[in-house]
Amino acid sequence: MQTPLKLALSTSVQKSLFQFLNLFNLLPQVDAVICCRVAPKQKAFVVKTVLANVKDLITASIGDGANDVAMIQEAHVGIGIRGVEGTQAVQASDFAISQFRFLQALLLDHGRGAYRRVAMFMCYYFYKNIALVMCDAIYAWFNGYSGTILFWDWWGFTRICYLASRVAEKCDWMKSVLSGPQYFIMY
Questions:
Q1: pTM tops 0.90
Q2: Calpha distance 161→68 (Å, rounded)
Q3: How far is the C-alpha of 42 from the C-alpha of 16, rounded, in Å?
Q4: If you count Cβ atoms within 10 Å of the first and of the last residue's Cβ in the chain, which end, N or C, has fewer?
Q5: In DSSP terms, which residues pair with 79 in a beta bridge?
Q6: d(CA 141, CA 146)
Q7: Any idea what the Cα angle at residue 28 is, between residues 23 and 30, rounded to 5°?
Q8: In this structure, are residues 89 and 63 in contact, taking their beta carbons and an 8 Å threshold?
Q9: CA end-to-end span of the chain, whole Å?
Q10: pLDDT tens, position by position, 138-160
C-alpha cells in the first residue's frame, strides 16, 4: 500500500510552473486526488490533467453543488450528491445519491452487480442468437429455402433462462468485501 501523498494546490496552480510540474510527477504515485477550496475551473483542470497524463485510468468525480458541475462532466463517471447546495450536481451527474454514506454501496455493490449483469446478458444474448439462427439456417436448407420459420412463437421462451438466473442469483458477497479489500479482487 502506498503512503498517502498530499499536495496542496493553491489558487495559482496554473501559473506556478513548479507546482504544475510537481503535480505531473506525483500523479502516477497516488491512488486518489482530493481537491478542497479550489475554483470550479481548477477542479475540472485537475480531472483533465489526470486523464491526459495517467493512461488506462477511469476517473470518478464526486460533487454536491453547482461548483462541482464542470468537474463531474469532465470525468468518466460523475456522482452527484443531493444536498443543501441544490441539485445542480445531481442533474449533471451520471449517478445520483442522497447522502455521502451511500457512496460505498454504489461503488462496491451496484457497480459490480451492473458489470456482472451486463456481462451475463451479453454472453447469453450471443449464445441464444447463434443457436436460434443456426437452427433456422439448417431448417431453411432442409426446406429448400421456402421462407418458413422454425421458431416463430418460441422467441418469448428464450428469455426464461436469463430471467431465472437473475431471480435466482442471491450473492451475499458484500460482507466479505467490507471485511477486507483483498476479497474484492477475488470476486
A1: no
A2: 43
A3: 13
A4: N
A5: 62, 95
A6: 9
A7: 80
A8: yes
A9: 20
A10: 988 888 888 877 766 666 666 77
DSSP H stretches of helix in 143-181:
160-168, 174-179
Cα torsion 68, 69, 74, 76: sign: positive
Q: Domains, the chain, ranges and CATH? A: 17-98 (3.40.50.1000), 104-186 (no CATH)
CA distance 44 to 155: 48
Q: Are strands 60-63 and 77-81 parallel, antiparallel or unpaired?
A: parallel
H-state helical runs in 3-110: 17-26, 40-53, 69-74, 88-92, 103-105
Count CA atoms closer than 13 A to 176's CA, side-chain side. 9
Q: What's the rounded mean pLDDT across residues 93-107? A: 88
The top-scoring range by mean pLDDT among 78-82, 123-127, 161-165 is 78-82
Asked whether the beta carbons of 68 and 43 are under 8 A apart, the reply is: yes
Mean pLDDT for 67-77 is 93
Tell whether the model's pLDDT for residue 36 goes beyond 60. Answer: yes
Distance CA 95, CA 78 (A): 6
Helices and strands, counts by H and E, the chain: 9, 3
Query: Band of the pLDDT at 27, cuts 50, 70, 90?
Result: confident
